[in-house]
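The records we work with from here on pair a chain with its fold. Taken together, the tokens spell out the fold as the letters spell out the chain. The record below shows the convention in full.
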Amino acid sequence: MVQFEALYLLGTQVNWLLLGTLTLQVYKFHICFPKERWWVKTLVYTLFVLEVVQTAVTSHFAYSILVISWGKPSIFTKLPWSSLAAPIFTGITSGSVQSFFAWRIWTLKDKHVWARIVSVVVVMLALMQSLAAFCTDARFAVTTQVTELERLHVGVNVWLIGSAVCDVVITITMLVILTEYRRKTPWKRTDTLISKLIYNTVETGAITTVVAIADVILFILFSQTNLHQAPAFILGKLYTNVLLATLNSRVVMGTRSGLAGARMDVSGDSKHEMQWRRQTACAPDLEAASRRVQITTVRHVTIDSDPVEHKKVADL
């Protein structure tokens, strides 16, 4: 029992750690993207509030087990009401974040039928796993007894496996899209930007997939101990942090928020205009950020891809 309680404590501490990271990311987003799309800002701030509430509720769960009921095995026969928090909050955050990435796929390749189909599939998977999380939690709320967990295998499997499959579909699709952009771009700066996006996609997609799979494995193997609560505590936070990391990565890459803006207009005889200027509070350069340097050259550039599509990569 001590080992299980230690895992509860570890899950709670990691949950708080991720909340601190999320708070910093939300602050960075607020400072660097004051003109972001209104619905994206609404999504970010709503998820942040939900994560704060989730941390409070899961902390109550850990306190009930580790402090109030310490040394009482009876606590594992009937869990406190706060044990219901993980599926509800994780279902909301994961479904919202996955739907956001479905929108990104649709926007990046809106002229391709296959991208629209994948976007619809991602949304359907996101809704399916979220609904499975709600239904499973509602069934467990009737008794909150650990012995009833075995009856919830189907719902939990649909929830967590569906979430992992959705993450894999998103990751593979984004890799295909970004690799295609990278292959077509004639500019080294754009190639570097897309390479960073590819690394970011693999890292963020892999971490949520691994934790979701670990959660479902622990639930199947140790359903009588409620051991799966440890990764379940942090799964929602990972999704929200992935969303903010993706949005804030545009600052590092010097895109819309603009550490250093670069604009390139391409027409018949390619005319290039580069600007360095201070655009937001995120610009770290004190003197150079206020300078403007304009370089105009005329040369012939042959490209096969649409420069508007390359702008989409940096803008999303």
